[in-house]
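ok trying this again, last paste got cut off
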Amino acid sequence: MTEDVEVSRRVWTIPNLLSMLRLAGVPLFLWLLLGPHADGWATAVLAASAFTDWADGRIARRLNQISHLGQLLDPAADRLYILSTLLAFVLRGFVPWWFVGLLLLRDAVVGAALLVLRRHGYEALQVNYLGKAATFNLLYGFPLLLLANASDALAAIALPLAYAFIIWGAVLYLIAGGHYVRQIDGIVRAERKAVAT
């Protein structure tokens, strides 16, 4: 069952401003991690990003401020935070490179499928609940991993939680990617079938 949602072309909405703020925080987050190794401040920026990610969607639905720009900015900010965090974590030795490679491969496959979808004249697909759940897990697991590395006293609690969130997030991220590709394949096949008949 599809929910009818009015999507506007407005730019200056509260959810879009929150998404822009999140995007502006990406270079600051990377500098804090890779420059002064200020893991505490980087954790705060990442936690603020996770909160605004939750808040912008909620505000958009409640105030009827869902927009085309927001549908682009929200997942773009998520991807940039995830990719920049993974890049920094690999460079700092927090996660293995193959883990990051697996997630990048998923993004490359989904990106190629989206290009095929656009060639057929369709807009990008809406983020599904699996994708949202994956992002939620990753954006809560990353600050916990930073916290575990920043404080020996908190590591015993924060580290298992961090790995649980990150592993679940990665699994859901891969499943969501497979779901997007299957959905796109279904749309393209249906269109080809309609043209042929």
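PB: full thing came through this time. The first helix runs from residue 14 to 34.
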